[in-house]
C-alpha cells in the first residue's frame, strides 16, 4: 500500500473534509485523519446545530459537485433582520429578486452526510476515521504522522484543520492572540406556530446576541428555527438545566410573538465564546485552515464561511503551483497562501469582535446611539449593499472556486 499523498489533512470536520474534496477536484490527493466516529456526527435528529452557508461558499459546494446532494436540505435566507432589544430603529437586509438569497441554512448533520458520502467515493482521498495521532513530523523532504495502530502516513504538506484547540498548531509553536468573552452560546432547535418567512433574526441584548435562524419545515410540516442564544458564563449552567417549559418561557420573552407559540425545543448544547487569531497561518510544510487559524464570535455567522475561503485559496495556490512543477509543500506557495488570506481573515475577525463589544454596552443611551446608527444605514442603500455583499462573501479577491 502506498501511504504517500500530496496532502496530510489533520481534522476531518466540515472544513477539513471540504478541503480534501476541493483538492481532489484539482487532482490533488490527500490523507484525512480524524479521531471522531462518523456515525456519531451524522446521527438522526435535529439538535439545532446548523451553519449559514454564504453565496460564495455555496458556489464552492456547487463547483465541487455537492450542490445537488445538498439543495433539498437547505433553507434559503431571504432577509436578515437586526434589532437592538426589539426596539424601533432596526436594520432589514433584503436583496433584490435578481440578486438571489443572502445564503442558506443547513443542519450540520446534512453538511457532514454530503461531505462524508462524497469523500467515501473519491479515490484521491484516503480517509482515516476514528484514528488517534501519536506523532507528527515535518522534514525537509516531506511530512508524516504516526497513528496509534502503528501506521505511518506521508505527504508533502501538512494541513491543520482540527479546530480551535489544534494540537498541530500548538506543537508547531505558532503564536496565537486570544481572549474569552466570558459568555457561552446555547444552541437548540425550536418548533413554532408561525412560519419564519426565511428571515434570519439577530436580536442584540446587553447580555449578548439572540439569533433565530430559519430552517426547513419538518416532514410533518412543523415550522423550525435554530436558536443561538448568548448568555453570561455564570448563567449558562442554570439556563441549560431549566425545564423545557421554563426554557421556552425565557426564549419567548426575548423574541416576542413573531413566531406565535413556541411548541417545543430540541436537545440543548453550549460552547464557550472566545476570539483567537494566529500570528501566521503557515510554517515549514504546514498550513492552517479554519478555526485552527482564526476563531471568531458567531455574531455574524461567518466562522465556517471564513474557513471555506481558506480552503478555496489554498487549493487555488496549490493547483497553480503544481501545474508549474512545484510540490504542495513549497515555501513559495505557502507564502502566497498566507499573503492572500491573512488580511481578509484578520479584518473579519476584528469586525466581529467590534460588533460584539459595541452591542454589549449596556444602558439606554448606548442603545439609542446604536439604533440611530442602524437607522442611518437603513436609509443608505450604498452602505446596505456593502454589508449584504460582505454577508454573502462576494467582496474582495475571491478564489476561483468560490465564484459563480
Task: Furnish the topology, listing elements before pairings.
Elements (H helix, E strand, L loop, with lengths): L3 E7 L3 H12 L4 E4 L4 H4 L8 E4 L1 H9 L3 H4 L4 E2 L2 E6 L6 E3 L10 E4 H13 L4 E4 L4 E6 L4 E5 L4 E9 L6 H5 L4 E17 L6 E7 L2 E8 L7 E10 H9 L2 H12 L6 E4 L3 E10 L3 E2 L2 E3 L5 E2 L7 H21 L7 H29 L4 H15 L2 H12 L12
Parallel strand pairs: 1-2, 1-11, 2-8, 5-13, 11-19
Antiparallel strand pairs: 3-7, 4-7, 5-6, 9-10, 10-11, 12-15, 12-16, 12-17, 13-14, 14-15, 17-20, 18-19
Helix pairs in contact: 1-5, 1-9, 9-10
Short description:
Keywords: FAD, Flavoprotein, Monooxygenase, Oxidoreductase, Ubiquinone. With 404 residues, the chain is an alpha+beta fold.
List low-confidence stretches. Answer: none
Q: What gap, in angstroms, lies between the N and C termini?
A: 39 Å
Strand content: 25-35%
Which homologous superfamily in CATH is the superfamily of the domain at 4-74 and 105-177 and 274-359 and 397-402? FAD/NAD(P)-binding domain
CATH topology of the domain at 4-74 and 105-177 and 274-359 and 397-402: FAD/NAD(P)-binding domain
Number of strands: 20
The share of residues in helices is 25-40%
Q: CATH top level of the domain at 4-74 and 105-177 and 274-359 and 397-402? A: Alpha Beta
Multimerization status: single chain
Overall pLDDT score? 93
Structural class: alpha+beta
- The count of helical stretches stands at 12
What is the CATH architecture descriptor of the domain at 4-74 and 105-177 and 274-359 and 397-402? Answer: 3-Layer(bba) Sandwich
The biggest sheet, with number of strands, parallel, antiparallel or mixed sense and barrel status, is: 9 strands, mixed
Give Rg in angstroms: 21 Å
What shape does the CA trace take?
A: globular
Cofactor: FAD
GO molecular function: FAD binding; monooxygenase activity; oxidoreductase activity, acting on paired donors, with incorporation or reduction of molecular oxygen
GO biological process, one term: ubiquinone biosynthetic process
Pfam families: FAD_binding_3
